[in-house]
TrEMBL record:
GO biological process, one term: phosphatidylethanolamine biosynthetic process
Species for this entry: Salipiger bermudensis (strain DSM 26914 / JCM 13377 / KCTC 12554 / HTCC2601) (Pelagibaca bermudensis)
Protein name: Putative choline kinase protein
InterPro entries, per database record: Kinase-like_dom_sf
UniProt keywords, alphabetically: Kinase, Transferase
Keyword Transferase: yes
Superkingdom in the source lineage: Bacteria
GO molecular function terms attached to this record: ethanolamine kinase activity
One GO CC term on file: cytoplasm
Amino acid sequence: MSPEDRIRAMDLWSGPVTIAPLSGGITNLNFVVTDAGRHFVVRLGQDIPEHLVMRWNERALTEAAAAAGISPALRHAEPGLMVTDFVASQALAEADLHDPATLHDAVALVGRVHRELSQQVAGPVLTFWVFHVLRSYAAWLEENGSAHIARLPGLMVQAGELEEAVGKVGLVLGHNDLLPQNILRAEDGRLWLVDWEYGGFNSALFDLGGLASNAGLPPEAEAEMLRLYHGHDPDPAYLRRYGAMKCASLLREAMWSMVSEISSDIDFDYAGYTAENLSRFNAALDAWKEGA
């Protein structure tokens, strides 16, 4: 059964529906469904064990984020499928987050996630510790004959150094995948956050480092991001730990792509994405070491 046929067969609809693909996803298949004048997003995706993605966790956090007014409402969920409200919006691009007003609003949204989301969720929730993810990726890549096997030992040594530098952390419930395209700007200017498949308890450092690195923030914008989040300029010890986590977030994105080169059947240039993120990781790591 095709994805479109599965969507049409759902009992959720009031009558015949119109289905249009929603571009941009590099892990899942997404569609906009129009039913009696109302618009919904249907997201298709199974568990992805190699990425530690469990859909029950994504559903729990999607519901919690909707209850907090951070994400569109979840209307239906079944194995491998979720239906949320459609918000007329534009996904952000890297350049959008270089705009001071947009960055201000995005940081405020991330702050709300860290302060409010844990109050909206009950029951099991995963923990996302990037260094565990990196070790899991390395093991999977070796077992599955990745073209990147030769570089894995060196990357794992670097990951260990970064984990030691991060040190002990406090936990928040984080999004853990703050790509610009996961932040939507609605027609009224409001920002929404979507795609919770990697959500879980983590250090706030990871979301902040991910936001900065995925958006390619220049140094002055990155400093403003941290100032906005904390309400003051962080001290050098914090910046050292933050820099280590930012490097780890870039390495995770690169290794996520290495795994996807093998496991994904979505039409996307994963090899190019791997190379781009390895380059960003190496540049960030060099800058971090120079600042020691």
